[in-house]
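Notes to self after the Tuesday call (sharing in case useful).
The group wants a holo model before anyone commits to mutagenesis around the pocket. I volunteered. Ligand is adenosine-5'-triphosphate. Logging inputs and output together so the record is complete.
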Amino acid sequence: MRNLNINGEAGLEPYTPTAQNSGGPAASDGFYSPEFRGDFGAGLLDLHAMDDTELLSEHVTSEPFEPSLFIPGVNKAFENDFNATTNWQQKEQSDADASASLFSANEKEISSTRENNVAKIKVVVCKRPLNKKEISRKEDDIVTVSENALTVHEPKLKVDLTAYVEKHEFCFDAVLDEHVNNDEVYHATVEPIIPIIFQRTKATCFAYGQTGSGKTFTMQPLPLRAAQDLVRFLHQPIYHNQRFKLWLSYFEIYGGKLFDLLSDRKKLCMREDGRQQVCIVGLQEFEVSDVQVVKEYIERGNSARSTGSTGANEESSRSHAILQLVVKKHPEIKESKRNNDVNESKAGKVVGKISFIDLAGSERGADTTDNDRQTRIEGAEINKSLLALKECIRALDNDQIHIPFRGSKLTEVLRDSFVGNSRTVMISCISPNAGSCEHTLNTLRYADRVKSLSRSGNPKKDQTVNSLPPSNRDVSSLSLLATADVEDVYERQPEVKVVDTGRRPVEKDVYTFDFDKQPSTFIGREESGMPSGPTDREKIEVNNSYGGSRSLSVYSSNSQNSADMEEKVRKVSPPRRKVTREEKPEKMGNRTKKDGGGSDLSTQNSMQSNSNNHNSTNDVGRRRYNPEPPTDGNINAILEEEEALIAAHRKEIEDTMEIVREEMKLLAEVDQPGSLIDNYVTQLSFVLSRKAAGLVSLQARLARFQHRLKEQEILSRKRVPR
Ligand SMILES: Nc1ncnc2c1ncn2[C@@H]1O[C@H](COP(=O)(O)OP(=O)(O)OP(=O)(O)O)[C@@H](O)[C@H]1O
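Result:
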C-alpha cells in the first residue's frame, strides 16, 4: 500500500483526535482453528495475506446469536460456520435438519407476498475498521454509525485557517459497522432474495467502493452462503421432483474483455440472440449440488483473477468478477445420455439466477495520479462501467423502458438483471480513515443517489409490511410453485401494483454543532422538493472518534450562531434499527460470527414493498425493444458529460474557495492603515468578475446536461410506447 492518505488531509488537522475506535481489546490471532482458516482462507475474491493492510485484532464478546426471521432454523447452520470446531460435513447435516423444519412450515399462506416484499433495489453500507497502517499514522476514524444512518465527520479548514468539522449524514436500508460479521452482512443483503430466485427472479448483488474499502472482503462469503441456501431449497421434493438444479459460473471483465475464471482464463464472447438475450459464448457452467463443491470452484476462480496495485491497495481487484448461481429446470433425460455438464446445462431452462459482482475499485484520485499508465487506463474503464451501472439502476428503478445497458460490457453482461423481475442489492463499502474522506463521501453520494431513486426505499412501505405477523414472515414463499410446473407458474404470476407513495424525502439541514456545547443549533433547512421526512426535532446518537457516544439534537428552530464547527447534515430518511455485531477479525477476509443485540435486518428489509408493475412494464419493454436504439450510441457521451459536470462543479468550488481567500486577503489589506482604496476597488472588481464567470459557466453546463437528460428520456419514451 503506497499511500492511504491520498488527499494528504490528515496532516492539516488541528482538531483533536481521540482514541481509535478499534473495537476493544485485541483477540488472540490463534482464535480460529486451522480448519477454519482453510475453509475461508483463500475464499472468494480474497487477496492474499493482509500484510500492511492487516487490521488490528478485535475483541470478541460472546452474545447470543439471533436467528434470522427470514429462514428459521437456517441460522443454526450459519452459527456453526464460525465455530472453530465445525467442519463442512457437520454443517451439511445441520443444514439438512434446518431445511426439514424450514419446509414443514405453513408455506401456502404467504406465497407471492415474499416476492413483492423484497425491495427492488436495496442499498447497504459497510464500514471497515481502520487498518494497521491507518492506525500507525494516527488517522482518525471519521465515520460514525448509528442504526441505519451514518455520519461522516469531514475535517476542514475555513478560509481563515480555522479548523472545523463538516458533518454529512446519510441513511440507507442498512448500515453495517466494522463490528458486523459475515452472517449479518448476508442477512442484510442477499438472504431475502434467495427464495424468489425460484420465482423467476434475476438478482444482482454488487459491492461498490474505493479501492481498499473492503469490497472483496465483504463480497467474499456471500456466494457461498447463498449457494448453501439455494442447495437447501433444491433438496426439497418440490424442486427436486421438477429437476431443478444449481449451476455456477465465474468470469471476469477486464479491460472490456471477458475471461472465464473456471476455464484457464479462456477469452469469452458475448452475443445477443434474436430475443436480445445475452449469452456468453463458451462460458463454462458447473452443476453444484453441495457447498463444498461451490467453495472449491470459488477458490479456483479467485486464484485466476486479475489483481494489481493501486494507490490504496497493493492487491487490488482490477477487474469486475462475476459469479453467477443459476437455478435451472431440466427435462427428464436418461443418465446414459448425459454427455457432460455443459450439454446438460444448456438443456435446462433458467428459472432464476443471482449474480455476485465484485467491482473493481472506484477510486479515481489515486489511480490517476499515483499509478502507471496501465492502471490509469484500467481506472478509466472501471469508471465508465460504474457510471453505466448507475445509469442502468436509475432507469430500472424509474420503470424506464429503455435500460442503457450498452453503456459498458458490465451492464451488457448483466442485461437480464435489469429487465423483468429483477432485484439489485448494492453494498457500498467505505474506508473510515480521514485520508479517505473524499472517496468515502463520493461512495456514499453514489449510494444515496441510487437509493433516493428507489421507490422501494420508502419507509412507509416498510412499516406496512412489518406489520405482518411473525409466523407469516417466517414461512418460505414456495406455495405458488408447490403444486405446479414452473412454466405454468410463470404464466400465472399475479401482477401486483403497489401504490407509489412518492419519493423518499431528501432534506438538507444546515446547522452548527459543537461537540462540547450541546445541543447543536439548527441554522437552516433546504427542502429539495421531496416530501419531508425528519420531524422538527431529531436526536441522533453519534459514536464518534472525538469522544464517544453523543446525543446530537437538531432543532428546527431559529438560527443561532455557534462555534467553529459547522455541519451540513443531509437526511434522507429517519433511522430505523441498529445492527451492531462484535467482530473478531480474521486474517483471510471473513467477518466472524458474533452475536449482538437482535437485529432482524433481513426481515426488516424484506419487508419493503415493491411494485410488480415494474416487471410487467419491463417485460413488455423487452419484447418490443429495438435492438439498435439510437440513444445507446449516446449513452457514453451522456456518462462522460455527467462526469464532466461533476468535475466542473468540484473545480468551481475550488475556484470559489481560492477567490474567497483572495477576498479575505483584500479585506485584510484594506483594513491596514494607509491602504489604497483604488487598488482595493480594482482588485475586488476583478475577483468578483471571475467569481461570476465561474458560476455562469457552471450554470450553462448544468442546463445543457439537464437538456440532454430530458432529451434522452423523451426519446426512449417515444421509441417504446408504454
Ligand atoms: N470489514 C473488514 N474487516 C477486516 N478487514 C477488512 C475488512 N474490510 C476489508 N478488510 C481488509 O482490508 C484490505 C482491503 O480490502 P479489499 O481487498 O476487500 O478491498 P477492495 O475494496 O476489494 O479493494 P480493490 O477495489 O482494490 O480490490 C484487505 O486486507 C482486507 O482483508
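Two things stood out.
The mean pLDDT is 62.
Residues 507-571 form one domain.
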